[in-house]
Write a structure and sequence with these properties.
The protein is about 75% helix and about 5% strand. With about 290 residues, it is mostly helical. The mean pLDDT is about 85.
């Protein structure tokens, strides 16, 4: 039977799960929320980050440190992806979003197929001292792997919030999707600003991918699981809101955890799509707007 103790336990686990969802959605919040780029390949790059972490961790490097080391590489990769997208699609007219959607879907499939060819379809995991152990507080046990995700999510949200609000480039990134003409008058090149922002969004994926493989095993097709959850978090939060992404991730994590413990695991994946449809119908601008 459902009880208050079970509700409390589901809420605690949902908070940890929600912070993880927020962390893996931050890159999409930047690319889709601030730049209006249909970045549906975001989960595929997330899984790519997990597999790169898997390879580096084989050298004896901690998975989180692997994610940090991969961030500059993914930053450059993101800049190259956006430059190709801009020159091929965005530069050519108003239907860039539709054609760009096909481009990013194609990119996602290419990444998935390449991972299958290199690693096969078997799941991959990493090893670390905090994976498989838990912090015990009374009758409750908190997996260290989820606590690590919790801390990183808070840190990433804080760092991106400070960057976007306190630096010139950060404020330019927030403005580029609203008025490119005014941004040019301020002496900034909108294309370069978007390229920088896309690089940041992809760099965040490297660290988020490391968290993904810490939380559980990964396989090349896992991006299909997270595409709904990440878009739900971003739309629910309000496009481009970093703090809102954290709040929306918490809301999704707690809701999914409660559904998991009351109705069963088969209903949990439907929570994100249900919340997404509900938010689009009631408040399309999201909790925090743009």
């Amino acid at each position: 039977m459902f009880s208050l103790d079970l509700l409390f336990e589901a809420t605690l686990f949902g908070i940890l799960l929600g912070c993880f969802y927020a962390a893996v959605s931050l890159g999409l919040s930047v690319a889709f929320g601030l730049l209006d780029v249909p970045y549906v390949a975001h989960p595929a790059l997330l899984v790519l980050g997990s597999y790169c972490t898997y390879m580096l961790s084989g050298l004896g490097i901690d998975p989180i440190l692997c994610g940090v080391l991969l961030m500059p590489v993914f930053f450059i990769l993101g800049m190259l992806i956006y430059r190709f997208y801009y020159e091929t699609f965005e530069k050519r007219g108003s239907d860039a979003a539709v054609r760009g959607l096909a481009f990013f879907f194609g990119l996602a499939f290419i990444v998935e197929v390449c991972l299958i060819l290199v690693f096969g379809v078997d799941q991959r995991t990493v090893r670390a001292s905090y994976i498989g152990s838990s912090l015990e507080l009374g009758d409750y046990r908190f997996p260290y792997r989820m606590l690590v995700a919790f801390v990183i999510a808070i840190g990433l949200t804080w760092a991106l919030t400070i960057y976007f609000s306190k630096t010139f480039n950060g404020r330019a990134i927030k403005a580029v999707g609203q008025d490119e003409g005014a941004l040019r008058l301020m002496g900034a090149n909108p294309v370069n600003i978007k390229q920088l922002a896309f690089g940041i969004a992809t760099a965040v994926n490297a660290l988020a991918g490391a968290m993904l493989i810490i939380v559980g095993p990964v396989d090349p097709a896992m991006d299909r699981i997270y595409i709904g959850r990440t878009f739900c978090v971003v739309v629910f939060a309000g496009l481009g809101s970093m703090s809102g992404t954290l709040v929306a991730g918490l809301f999704l994590g707690i809701s999914e955890s409660i559904v998991l413990m009351t109705l069963g695991a088969s209903w949990a994946p439907a929570v994100s799509f249900g919340l997404l449809l509900l938010m689009l119908g009631i408040r399309p601008q999201g909790l925090f707007g743009r």
